[in-house]
Amino acid sequence: MTSSASDGGRRPLRVAVLGCSGSIGTQTLDVCRRHRDRVEVVALSVFSSTEALVSAAREFSVPHVVVSCEDHAADACLDGLPEGCELRVGAEAVVGLATLPEVDVVVNALVGFAGMHAGYEALRSGKTLAYANKESIVCGGDLLMPLVRPGRLVPVDSEHSAIFQCLVGERHEDVARLWLTCSGGPFWGRSREELARVTAAEALAHPTWTMGPKITIDCATLMNKGLEAIEAHHLFDVPMDDVSVLVHRQSKVHSMVEFVDGTTKAQLGASDMRAPIQYALSCPGRWEASADRVDWWACEPLTFEAPDTATFGCLELAYAAGRAGGTLPCAMNAANEVANAGFRQGLCGFLDIERIVSRVMDETSVERVESLRQLDEVDARARERASAVLSEVAR
């Protein structure tokens, strides 16, 4: 995939970073910063963080930028964009970045359902999609996966990157099971009675990873691992029940693949998202490390245990949605985004996230996925219903 200048004198890989001010976006820019001879940043987008956009655009001399929130289109700091930089505004303009002729790789670091259209158009345009936007595959896997050309869809999530790396050189028919590792989040080992009293501030204190607020809450409820299981089901073409979650508190084993002969391959490394981001840009080659190396002599013992789905019910809800398929994962994801935000805003309790998602899933009529427009409608209906349930809970 790479067209690095250091590989046979070829030009640098031209990259668009969608959501460049978030956790994945800023770490992607750090990888690009460390490998300027191999990577050229040609397009950036933010939702509203215009100062971060201007700073990155000036540092990397970026010719194309987008602010998706129209309320920030006239921010004074945008006057500081480099000379010749084209500024566009709105959600459609973000999708446009994914199809620019001068872009080789689209890093989709957008959060939530909003990233699906950009990922879809990137694949349709023949770009390589390095995606951290798992909701794209969860909601629209039935539409996106048929568009994927060999080597053109590379996961950035640490777990799916690990599986992707473990499968290099292997045959699909030899895969028996995928093991998705999970830190367990900040509340592992607590009872439901204890979870009923936790605060958003406590939930945002993840023990091993630094991430954005939405995904950090998803990790606390284990919904994130459920979303990743659906993602793995689509990405690696395995049944939902052949994707198993394994709680691994040290976050050094990023996931594993078990084969029919009983052999298991694992990918290990530091708890640093720059490593899978870099591999998404370099694969099948490898570049000098952007993340700190693990001192395996000093490493604490590695432990594994089964997830507690009775206490953390969001994981089982996600599995139920993945087994049902069709539009149910889309509705589930929408309800979760509403409930997750409601918890962070103090409108509901931690366990209410699970209750809201469950209610919306029970009231959803499952249909076969046929179009992005259909998924937009499913998403909107589920959000409306979830907001209504959230209002009931908040009263």
UniProtKB/TrEMBL annotation:
<feature type="binding site">
    <location>
        <position position="23"/>
    </location>
    <ligand>
        <name>NADPH</name>
    </ligand>
</feature>
<dbReference type="Pfam" id="PF02670">
    <property type="entry name" value="DXP_reductoisom"/>
</dbReference>
<keyword id="KW-0414">Isoprene biosynthesis</keyword>
<comment type="function">
    <text>Catalyzes the NADPH-dependent rearrangement and reduction of 1-deoxy-D-xylulose-5-phosphate (DXP) to 2-C-methyl-D-erythritol 4-phosphate (MEP).</text>
</comment>
<keyword id="KW-0560">Oxidoreductase</keyword>
<dbReference type="InterPro" id="IPR013644">
    <property type="entry name" value="DXP_reductoisomerase_C"/>
</dbReference>
<dbReference type="InterPro" id="IPR036169">
    <property type="entry name" value="DXPR_C_sf"/>
</dbReference>
<feature type="domain" description="DXP reductoisomerase C-terminal">
    <location>
        <begin position="268"/>
        <end position="384"/>
    </location>
</feature>
<feature type="binding site">
    <location>
        <position position="135"/>
    </location>
    <ligand>
        <name>NADPH</name>
    </ligand>
</feature>
<dbReference type="Pfam" id="PF13288">
    <property type="entry name" value="DXPR_C"/>
</dbReference>
<dbReference type="InterPro" id="IPR026877">
    <property type="entry name" value="DXPR_C"/>
</dbReference>
<dbReference type="InterPro" id="IPR036291">
    <property type="entry name" value="NAD(P)-bd_dom_sf"/>
</dbReference>
<feature type="binding site">
    <location>
        <position position="228"/>
    </location>
    <ligand>
        <name>1-deoxy-D-xylulose 5-phosphate</name>
    </ligand>
</feature>
<keyword id="KW-0460">Magnesium</keyword>
<feature type="binding site">
    <location>
        <position position="159"/>
    </location>
    <ligand>
        <name>Mn(2+)</name>
    </ligand>
</feature>
<protein>
    <recommendedName>
        <fullName>1-deoxy-D-xylulose 5-phosphate reductoisomerase</fullName>
        <ecNumber>1.1.1.267</ecNumber>
    </recommendedName>
</protein>
<feature type="binding site">
    <location>
        <position position="133"/>
    </location>
    <ligand>
        <name>NADPH</name>
    </ligand>
</feature>
<feature type="binding site">
    <location>
        <position position="158"/>
    </location>
    <ligand>
        <name>1-deoxy-D-xylulose 5-phosphate</name>
    </ligand>
</feature>
<feature type="binding site">
    <location>
        <position position="225"/>
    </location>
    <ligand>
        <name>1-deoxy-D-xylulose 5-phosphate</name>
    </ligand>
</feature>
<feature type="binding site">
    <location>
        <position position="212"/>
    </location>
    <ligand>
        <name>NADPH</name>
    </ligand>
</feature>
<dbReference type="Pfam" id="PF08436">
    <property type="entry name" value="DXP_redisom_C"/>
</dbReference>
<feature type="binding site">
    <location>
        <position position="22"/>
    </location>
    <ligand>
        <name>NADPH</name>
    </ligand>
</feature>
<dbReference type="InterPro" id="IPR003821">
    <property type="entry name" value="DXP_reductoisomerase"/>
</dbReference>
<feature type="domain" description="1-deoxy-D-xylulose 5-phosphate reductoisomerase C-terminal">
    <location>
        <begin position="153"/>
        <end position="236"/>
    </location>
</feature>
<feature type="binding site">
    <location>
        <position position="24"/>
    </location>
    <ligand>
        <name>NADPH</name>
    </ligand>
</feature>
<feature type="domain" description="1-deoxy-D-xylulose 5-phosphate reductoisomerase N-terminal">
    <location>
        <begin position="15"/>
        <end position="141"/>
    </location>
</feature>
<feature type="binding site">
    <location>
        <position position="159"/>
    </location>
    <ligand>
        <name>1-deoxy-D-xylulose 5-phosphate</name>
    </ligand>
</feature>
<comment type="similarity">
    <text>Belongs to the DXR family.</text>
</comment>
<feature type="binding site">
    <location>
        <position position="228"/>
    </location>
    <ligand>
        <name>Mn(2+)</name>
    </ligand>
</feature>
<feature type="binding site">
    <location>
        <position position="224"/>
    </location>
    <ligand>
        <name>1-deoxy-D-xylulose 5-phosphate</name>
    </ligand>
</feature>
<feature type="binding site">
    <location>
        <position position="134"/>
    </location>
    <ligand>
        <name>1-deoxy-D-xylulose 5-phosphate</name>
    </ligand>
</feature>
<feature type="binding site">
    <location>
        <position position="157"/>
    </location>
    <ligand>
        <name>Mn(2+)</name>
    </ligand>
</feature>
<comment type="pathway">
    <text>Isoprenoid biosynthesis; isopentenyl diphosphate biosynthesis via DXP pathway; isopentenyl diphosphate from 1-deoxy-D-xylulose 5-phosphate: step 1/6.</text>
</comment>
<keyword id="KW-0464">Manganese</keyword>
<feature type="binding site">
    <location>
        <position position="183"/>
    </location>
    <ligand>
        <name>1-deoxy-D-xylulose 5-phosphate</name>
    </ligand>
</feature>
<dbReference type="InterPro" id="IPR013512">
    <property type="entry name" value="DXP_reductoisomerase_N"/>
</dbReference>
<keyword id="KW-0479">Metal-binding</keyword>
<feature type="binding site">
    <location>
        <position position="206"/>
    </location>
    <ligand>
        <name>1-deoxy-D-xylulose 5-phosphate</name>
    </ligand>
</feature>
<keyword id="KW-0521">NADP</keyword>
<dbReference type="GO" id="GO:0030604">
    <property type="term" value="F:1-deoxy-D-xylulose-5-phosphate reductoisomerase activity"/>
</dbReference>
